[in-house]
Design a protein that fits this description.
4 copies of one chain form a homotetramer.
Chain A: H1 4-12, E1 17-20, E2 23-24, H2 32-48, H3 51-57, E3 58-60, E4 67-69, H4 78-95, H5 102-122, H6 126-140, E5 144-147, E6 170-174, E7 178-185, E8 196-199, E9 214-219, E10 225-229, H7 237-240, E11 255-264, E12 268-271, H8 277-314, H9 320-345, E13 348-349, E14 355-356, H10 359-384, H11 387-390, H12 394-397, H13 403-410, H14 418-433, H15 435-443, H16 448-458, H17 461-472
Parallel strand pairs in A: 1-10, 5-8
Antiparallel strand pairs in A: 1-2, 3-4, 6-7, 7-11, 8-9, 9-12, 10-11, 13-14
Chain lengths: ~475, ~475, ~475, ~475
């Protein structure tokens, strides 16, 4: 397993093509904004290397017999599924944002089930290829990035009906050695924190969409791959070097353009089997929605802690209405966590040997996240007070002219250093107003409508009807 | 284990003192209203006797080595905790109301932990007495009733501060053979469906409340015990013999007056150890709130089935807004169930060997129930339509003068027999408007405020604060 | 204007055909269940006759110049629209349930607009006929019943597509003197408290549905009209003569079958003009949804009062979490009321001279009612406690054997007579569990989905888009 | 009345002391971030000068007989109260954020009532002074800034109990000419868009707090006044000159330090009359909470327009689940607006002749805002999609290397220019993630807990109890 330092070192060796604010970034790892994101992923290496958490964060690989980071392990038993949730909750509270390494794992989990199922039907050899790739990820302790969400063009049209056929990633050429692909994937959380970009289809496909039925992996600095780091709400803070709020970690989500990228056949895990696109999507979605159940409950832990401290710092620790808000926050965290955990405990073995979670319970968790995280933000702001919107800059506090005046007036509860209050307010701003997190609360793992439809589709409505008929006396 | 028939037979042998509507009921088992409640408990016997569910509903007693009904088993492992939830969900969907046997089990679970803890402190012998009682319950496959909720008098006063000292059940006399108790317990769900009445204190107690620190069990037809069956919203239907809605089951919740009841020492499981009252209450509450997580998600299953059938019967099966409501219902059921299930999986062994659930997750489940069951009712009514309030009586449908006219006009979707639509509407009325259920959704296992406070108290708020401090850079 | 006594006298003179529980009721006014409903309507006569409220409840008829009850007045100015809301709120708090006289008024308001509009297009003479009818209602101070909701058969089919053509009320014969109609109208709140049954179509109609495009009025005891009083949740209480909770008022909602009913032409207000059915429905719905905004906020006033008294009586008056629930109740009442009131103040004059309310604000109010009334019930039960489900009967309290014991144990806060606590708990049961009210909260004035669609349809979405375009810099 | 140009010119003549990001701003009006805020206030001048809106936005001054901007008018009748809401809604939709001029008006309205009341008790002359000031504001068409919220120090202590006595603004010296004050006011929305800073106390005061019972006005560039413009979430966009989203307007909220500021007696409107602090606060709060009811419903109009356009641009215009979200947005806007409007219509004349709104309905509106605006943001993001978090910068779209690739892949629905989709997504980011708005939704006009307590305090709970008693039969 890699240490954090080795992880950073390994990223520095990559040479991805990166644009931000209209300019090319030659050394993304040294960019403070990108680095804050990389550090969040770094926590997955750090904790696995920490004596206290090593047992929880690592496992023995069934492929190599060596100890590996759980973020490269496809679950082999219920216990593995349960630990997925527990390490994600711990990480969520530890980084206070998205650690960005779950998406790659969720792709690996998905491929470990579906490549096997495709092979069973078509006598293809995707599963063996995938196992080689997985072994490579495990041995080198690599981070993966889930390239799932296509740009989609006109959403009322299917891939092959689009005016521009590239609106979903597709094969544009094939050769003996491999395939050439074109398209773009968006909301690529942590794509520069990852060594490998793992591509899955973003939706169910049908006849006519064969060129879009694609799964593969390429290094994140492959030729033709362009990472465009877009804007988020607090995106200049790390670059300015002040007012970050979360002094350690942040998140960014590039758009990745696949501008004629070559993929060798040994890295292709699906190519043309349209009817399996739906399974890829539903497996990935279920895994990823459940990952959120862990990390977002962890993030709420950190938010709740911040709210409790703001009560201490403002002198409102005894306000019963604030206590009710804290209870709401705890309740939401435990709900998201409880359903996610239950999804693991109620998991089952798939033909390939990988364990799969209960999709109904996983989606039940995600629906709460999509609805309630904005409520968490609201409660956090309510408890913290108006400075979430307009706290003066650290530069003002450091100003020889007005710094001492500001510190005089920002003083809160007796006995609390004014600096702590200022720092905590800044953290609250980050946790409440960071758009990269806010949007993932809602759209991560598919839109809320998708979560709801999945819940319905996976439920046994016939059984429910039978119950009602019997009680009503209808034969 | 008893069959349903043996169960009914065993109840008929009891001679409890029962009042209803101002009159004494000499043979309560034959009263159709009481019988509908007894039948719901009967389902716990029926399913344990059913080949398909026998495995799930029964277990081997660690006390006798014999196969026993799970409703007399104190949990010996995580699996036992998990099955608590699963059998409750199944029963909830099977009876469409409360089956009334979980409360007794939750008392047994509680006593199996706390009597041991008291003995450890005081070298008393409650645990041995309790084990004898437990064995008796198991061997005879008896149902217990949880006598927990006192009348409470003025709620701003503690037990010993009340004007009338009997507002909480208390010892009024002691002798070599046993104790005499006086007081009243309310909301005694299924007290006439039970063989034994198991008494626990209803709140934490303090010095001065020694006479109230009581736990014991007496047969439900003990001398001095008076069951007063109060009114609920649909309480005349079974008695009239029409318009029951749920043609099989119902619920009733007497007030039980302990008018100087003698309890022999071998049935006394706590007497005077005030500081253990809080533990009794918190254990029982946690277990019972979790039981609700099972049965209420099962009840929602039946409600969802009814809603889906109403869509079929009304011709609205394709209305997307109704489908959204169905999804809400499923989501609530799975949330309550998921948190409850996670509470079991995350349980732990107590010193006595009994397993205890995670109280945070159990309370997280109950808070949803208390808030969302009324929303389930609302959605069910919304989907079903206005006849939930004013469907003509079966007697009208049978009337030679207007019956055929009514059947003509009550016809719904093409191909659906009008009788089915009428029956299902009647079931919906029962599931939506039965006050015995509605109130238990809110107050069962303590009031919503109690659920919230427990959640807060049992959470690790210090850890949450530490997370926030580290991220904000506060030492 | 009539006094209450004159009103009751006038009802006794009618000879409607009524069935209940399978039997014919020869004297419905003397049936305690029906009478409790009639008394609620009686309050509209009582308050208009009360010196304190006379000014508010009455107005000068523009047709006759005489003072009339506002429940027969079509609004002639904004002030009239505003008073609609205020008298409904007052009545809602005064009767604690539905007073049942608004529906007839809402029909009169609708007809006073639409008959004029039809005449303008077709040179028909509906408006004159209607004015005669209105004058008759005013002069005799009569109550009307809104016969709007058809049974509808298969809801996926339009009226003329139904297997049985009578699933929507229709003309089956025409003569020089009038028309013969057949069909059934359901959820006919207070049909036996009304002198006249006023029929409007229940939905928009299209070509082919001409026979269904009908509006007319007939006396409630017209030959061929059959009132079938269905069941509601607490429907036996008045008949038993105990445990009514609301000791004065109740509600019932018959199904009315039109078994070949003759309507003379002078009472026909629309016949065949299909394209005006939509306007009839939308006008009536808007008026009626707004009426709810008044009476339901008034009902919440009574519920809030009951909750506050339960706090006093239980000894929980200082519980801050209960106070928060009271605030929720007040907030909901004021929201429903505020939007309804604004709908009046923002009303406008229609061509006939009648004033019409703002439909967007009226529907905004109703959507809150449909969603929040069940929450009001939940909060009321939460504050009141478990006895809402199982309070012993008055007959038990009167029992020589157990009455005094029950009274001893039902005692609440110091200084509060036990009788008051018992009475208030019984009232809470009535306000929380009366299905005739509960279902009207949701389906009154059309289903929640209808309220939402109306809101959307009546809103200026184009303006909203223009705002966004300008701010984004899109030409 | 001033034109926008004259307004900007007048601001340029002021020389306020301003700090931002640790540096002194010599020419704040030319700073693009500040200017975007000033422009929002400018809209209040622009629309009053626009033929179409002139009638709505202006009125005749009762003091001068001249036509004045309604933002300098204290309401003289119900119609004036109603127009407050209507111009605020229009402005909210026009600027898509806060226009920042209502707070000053709300101070004027408050002072026009309370100075009169103080004079009546103490025979002081505040009201005359205030009228002079008001005339000055009207004649010169000036904008005012509400300096209400003190820093508050330890919130569990009253002003005079604080360690540092300056935690609430106070008099530190008095002379014949005037007073010297010290302290700081926070969240000073648009303090640099205003000509005058109007100070009111922030809370009820008691004996011992005399020095804090202060109301006065000073020019915003008075000596000793320091405006510190703190950070908000998107605060660098205008400065960078790209990616603003809202291309016209924004909001900023400085902290203002009163570092020994002199106020001449003719500008002092309260000084020492502690018992009137509560009235100042409650009047101002009621007015300001109601102002929000107008502008926030207008902002939702713009948000709803953006959501509808995103549906058009993404190709999801037919998704019924999105339409439901639009309906939620409309419903919230109309609820906030309806209650606010009703508060005006139900207003009453105060002794000074100024009209005051109904505080119950005003607070009912604000409670919805505080709870629902975050839900509006959530729905807007849900409808718009993931690009709200990570849309590439305009600089990327303009890049010769990747600009055309990005435009290719950002194309949405057929027929929609890609530029429009990009612009609208950027506007959505602004409306969803601007912390200056988000926090005002919650804390503007006092915290949510304050809104709730006011609602309770102002309601007639005794009447509600009487209703319930009568219905229950309790004398």
């Amino acid at each position: 397993m890699k240490t954090v330092e080795q992880y950073l070192e390994s990223l520095r060796k990559l040479k991805p093509t990166v644009y931000m604010f209209g300019e090319k970034l030659e050394d993304p790892v040294s960019n403070p904004r990108i680095l804050a994101g990389i550090n969040a992923t770094g926590a997955t290496y750090e904790l696995a290397d920490n004596q206290k958490y090593r047992e929880l964060f690592s496992a023995i690989s069934p492929l190599t017999g060596d100890r590996i980071n759980r973020f490269t392990l496809t679950p082999q038993c219920i216990e593995d599924l349960v630990k997925r949730v527990k390490i994600n909750r711990l990480l969520g509270s530890y980084v206070g944002t998205c650690h960005q390494r779950c998406t790659g794992l969720d792709c690996l989990c998905t491929l470990s089930i579906v490549t096997y199922d495709i092979d069973r039907k078509y006598e293809t050899h995707y599963y063996d290829r995938f196992k080689e790739f997985l072994k490579y990820m495990q041995v080198n302790d690599l981070a993966g990035n889930a390239s799932v969400t296509d740009v989609k063009g006109d959403r009322s049209l299917s891939p092959h009906e689009q005016d521009d056929k590239d609106m979903y990633l597709r094969v544009v050429d094939r050769s003996k050695k491999g395939i050439i692909v074109r398209g773009a994937k968006v909301h690529q959380t942590g794509s520069l924190s990852a060594h490998e970009v793992i591509v899955l289809p973003t939706r169910a496909l049908q006849k006519g969409d064969e060129d879009y039925a694609l799964a593969f992996a390429v290094p994140s600095d492959t030729k033709g791959l362009i990472h465009v780091v877009g804007r988020n709400s607090l995106d200049t803070r790390e670059i300015e070097g002040v007012d970050c709020g979360n002094i350690r970690y942040s998140k960014y989500c590039p758009t990745i353009i696949f501008d004629e990228v070559f993929v060798p056949w040994e890295r292709v895990f699906m190519c043309g089997e349209v009817e399996f696109a739906a399974e890829m999507v539903s497996r990935f979605s279920a895994f990823h929605r459940q990952s959120h159940g862990g990390c977002k409950s962890g993030k709420i832990d950190a938010m709740t802690g911040a709210a409790l401290l703001m009560m201490d710092y403002n002198g409102t620790a005894k306000a019963t209405h604030h206590k009710e808000k804290i209870i709401e926050m705890i309740h939401t965290a435990e709900t998201i966590y409880g359903c996610s955990l239950a999804a693991s405990y109620e998991g089952r073995r798939e033909p390939s040997g990988t364990f799969f979670i209960d999709p109904v319970l996983a989606n039940a968790s995600k629906i709460h996240e999509g609805k309630q995280m904005s409520e968490m933000v609201r409660l956090l702001i309510d408890v913290s007070g108006g400075f979430v919107a307009d706290l003066p800059s650290e530069r003002d506090f450091d100003s020889p002219r007005i710094g001492s005046l500001l510190k005089k007036y920002m003083k809160g509860a007796v006995g609390v250093p004014v600096e702590n209050r200022i720092k905590m307010l800044r953290l609250v701003e980050k946790m409440a107003m960071e758009s990269a997190d806010t949007v993932s609360d809602i759209h991560g793992g598919g839109s809320p409508a998708a979560h709801r439809l999945t819940l319905f589709r996976e439920s046994d409505t016939e059984y429910k009807k039978q119950c009602a008929k019997r009680l009503a006396g209808i034969e």
